[in-house]
Design goal:
The chain is of the alpha/beta class and 234 residues long. The chain has one domain: 3-Layer(aba) Sandwich (Rossmann fold). It is 38% helix and 26% strand. It has ten helices and ten strands. The strands form two sheets. Strands 6-7-8-3-9-10 form a six-stranded mixed β-sheet, with helices on both faces. Helix 3 packs parallel to helix 6. The longest helix is centred in the C-terminal third of the chain and has 16 residues. The radius of gyration is 17 Å and the shape is globular. The chain binds adenosine-5'-triphosphate. The site of adenosine-5'-triphosphate has 13 residues, from helix 1. This is Amino acid/amide ABC transporter ATP-binding protein 2 (HAAT family).
């Protein structure tokens, strides 16, 4: 579904990602794991069109997207749930969700997808008229994911959703992602929480200072010496 080939990118001509290649197949949950500053967010921003590659190719459903503007990439079916939640605090939960549906044209479709999203996130339904800033951190993260789903994406990009959450909430948010994946969504997740992200992934990639240094099934990576030594203190 998504193929990234020999991607190099960065900021103001300074490279941060070097010759990175990976793929996400339909229905998979794939995790890219790595420490702070490894370049995980930069990869997602490049896929969703917020950053342009220096070189390399990105293909989504057999179409080149690396030169497309971000709004066209959303229309093709990629939704990006950014790091740090970014919900609109002064707006209600419901209005935040409706913003996510801006690519849908008919009111019937919007109503339908809102109902589907409320089915996955009953807590958001209970709080639909509440301002987003009054939600707890975990609920705001749920809202960010839910808003991503409102565009009916084929591929969901999720950036560091564990950031700033208490461990118990991290587990809750991960459970939600597993549920969304079980319902058939294709998910590319980037995470610093290496163990959690690899345990739930079908496949994973390890990113170190802008380069992919290992790949495999979640289980293979968890059992690899590299991951054990570098990320699990063994
Ligand atoms: P984190 O988990 O801390 O978000 P990350 O793996 O997502 O880390 P990135 O945010 O992709 O890492 O950052 C990779 C590198 O790019 C870092 O060295 C960072 O300082 C640099 N960088 C990120 N954003 C910018 C920017 N807007 N301008 C210049 N450099 C940037």
């Amino acid at each position: 579904m998504l193929k990234v080939r020999n991607l190099s990118t960065g900021y103001d001509g300074v490279p941060v990602i070097f010759d990175v290649s990976f793929e996400v197949r339909e229905g998979e949950m794939v995790s890219i794991v790595g420490s702070n500053g490894a370049g995980k967010t930069t990869i997602l921003k490049t896929i969703s069109g917020l950053l342009k590659p220096f070189s390399g190719e990105i293909e989504f459903l057999d179409k080149r997207i690396d030169r497309m503007p971000a709004h066209e990439i959303v229309k093709l079916g990629i939704a990006h749930v950014p790091e740090g939640r970014h919900v609109f605090g002064k707006m209600t939960v419901r209005d935040n969700l409706l913003l996510g549906a801006y690519t849908l044209e008919s009111d019937t479709d919007i109503k339908k997808v809102l109902e589907e999203v409320y089915e996955i996130f009953p807590r958001l339904k209970e709080r639909e008229n509440q301002k987003a800033e009054t939600l707890s951190g975990g609920e705001q993260q749920m809202l960010a994911i839910a808003r991503g789903l409102m565009s009916r994406p084929k591929l969901l990009l999720v950036d560091e959703m564990s950031l700033g959450l208490m461990p118990i909430l991290v587990d809750k948010v991960l459970d939600i992602l597993k549920e969304i994946s079980r319902r058939g969504m294709t998910i590319l997740l980037v995470e610093q929480k290496v163990q959690e992200a690899l345990e739930m992934a079908d496949r994973g990639y390890v990113l170190q200072t802008g380069r992919i240094v290992a790949e495999g099934t979640g289980k293979e990576l968890l059992e690899s010496d590299l991951v054990k030594k570098a990320y699990m203190g063994m």
